[in-house]
Write a structure and sequence with these properties.
The chain has 425 residues and is α/β, with parallel strands linked by helices. It is built from 17 helices and twelve strands. The strands form two sheets. The chain has a seven-stranded mixed beta sheet, with helices on both faces. Helix 1 (3-9) packs antiparallel against helix 3 and helix 3 (57-70) packs parallel to helix 12 (274-285). The chain starts with a helix and ends with a helix. Bound molecules: pyridoxal-5'-phosphate. Pyridoxal-5'-phosphate binds at residues 80-82, 85, 106, 108-109, 150, 154, 179, 181, 201, 203-204, 213, 215.
Length: 425
């Protein structure tokens, strides 16, 4: 199936007489005829549902659709993008371990990795995503277990050279984990470029209508954990908390995802509600259509902004001459996303005036939604960072993150034009 078809058809195939639309299994538990059968489920010896914290048919169908869109072997849903990012690392790192991460990432992920995970004894080194392979390799240590980056960084819009990152990771015997939230599998499938694990905040374009916070993890099935068994004993040696199961032996290509479900979801419990997964699935059905419109509109808005004498700079990889235009041509040939960042002349003060003068575009702590929205990261999402950290994350104090929706592009441009005129008064 091609990608537009997968958006509609993947994940759920009803049998004779069953509901055409994916049902919402709004049930915590599932009934069995015998204690013995239930026991086999608990031992992971048989497939089946018994408690929604571990697995739920609605959640599983949507996870399978996302895995199929990304070209992975299996996926799991989480309650948020944050928990997807956390699980993706914590599934293979424990106290005393280390991982390497691009500096250009979402502010929430930056806090999670640099502050909260440090408290768990898991250390991170940040690297400039534009650095050479040799410079990135220099951050690796004997206890490094993963490399992490974002396809299109939120909000800096840095396009990741996925092949470069994959090569450095694989040269060091560790997986590359890519957060593909902004590109979505419609515009980029990181696994095709060498990523081993893909994570998402489904809250953004996948849901698309700002109804449900959620996340997803997709396993490519490609990483050979057994070849680096000394680094990943959690996957390749017996798990005492599951009667000595060895995930790579029992589950092969799905070892990573099975361990994440069987241990992290069991113990930490960041499951999405089945109702939220149902809404996410509706969003996924129109993802391909919406991404095309987001990209068309954003291209028009970016070109308008570039031509305005009230705007000091515009960052959008679809623009000729943009720093990431060439990388975008390679990794995002059909368009990147609907998010543009730019600076209003007059710095922070005029940026705030501009934002407050918009009528159609709404100030919300959200992005990648059908509705046009706008945010000032230095005073919102990234306010925990000092100026130096902001700079390293590619966020200047005047940066406005403008998320172009799927309204008529001319209405969006008129709104911007009016607000720019007011802010320049
Ligand atoms: C929003 C976002 C997250 C966090 O996701 P939530 O669903 O808000 O928890 C992670 N990564 C990226 C790139 C994001 O944009």
């Amino acid at each position: 199936m091609r990608i537009d078809t997968k958006c509609i058809q993947s994940g759920y195939t009803p049998k004779n007489g069953e509901a055409r639309i994916l049902p919402i299994y709004q049930s915590t538990t599932f009934k069995y005829e015998s204690t013995e059968q239930m026991g086999r489920l608990f031992d992971l010896e048989e497939d089946g549902y018994f408690y929604t914290r571990l697995a739920n048919p609605t959640n599983d169908a949507v996870a399978a659709k996302i895995a199929d869109l990304e070209g992975g072997v299996a996926g799991m849903l989480t309650a948020s993008g944050q928990s997807a990012c956390f699980y993706s690392i914590f599934n293979i790192c424990e106290a005393g371990d280390h991982f390497v991460c691009s500096t250009s990432i979402y502010g929430g992920t930056y806090n999670l990795f640099s502050v909260t995970m440090k408290k768990l004894g898991i250390d991170v080194t940040f690297v400039d995503p534009d650095a050479s392979a040799e410079e990135i390799a220099a951050a690796f240590k004997p206890n490094t277990k993963a490399l992490f980056g974002e396809t299109i960084a939120n909000p800096a819009l840095v396009v990741l050279d996925i092949e470069k990152f994959a090569k450095v990771a694989h040269d060091h015997g560790v997986p590359l984990i890519v957060d593909n939230t902004f590109a979505t599998p419609i515009n980029c499938r990181p696994i095709e470029w060498g990523a081993d694990i893909v994570v998402h905040s489904t809250t953004k374009y996948m849901d698309g209508h700002a109804t449900s916070v959620g996340g997803a993890i997709v396993d490519s099935g490609n990483f050979d954990w057994e070849a680096h068994s000394d680094k990943f004993p959690g996957l390749t040696t017996p798990d005492e908390s599951y009667h000595g199961v060895v995930y790579t032996e029992r589950f092969g290509k799905a070892a990573y995802i099975t361990k994440a479900t069987a241990t992290l979801m069991r113990d930490l419990g960041s499951i999405p509600s089945p109702h939220n997964s149902f809404l996410l699935n509706l969003g996924l059905e129109t993802l391909a259509l919406r991404m095309r419109k987001h990209c068309d509109n954003a291209q028009k808005v970016a070109e308008y902004l570039k031509s305005s004498d009230k705007v000091s700079w515009v960052s959008y990889s679809g623009l000729e001459g943009d720093k990431y235009h060439d990388l975008a041509k390679k990794y995002l040939p059909n368009g990147s996303c609907g998010v543009i960042s730019f600076g209003v002349k007059g710095g922070r003060e005029n940026a705030v005036k501009f934002m407050d003068s918009l009528k159609l575009a709404a100030i919300v702590t959200h992005v990648a939604d059908a509705r046009t929205s706008v945010l000032h990261p230095a005073s919102h999402t990234h306010r925990q960072m000092n100026d130096e950290e902001l700079k390293a994350a590619g966020v200047t104090p005047d940066l406005i993150r403008f998320s172009v929706g799927i309204e008529d592009a001319d209405d969006i441009i008129e709104d911007i034009e009016n607000a720019l005129n007011v802010s320049a008064e």
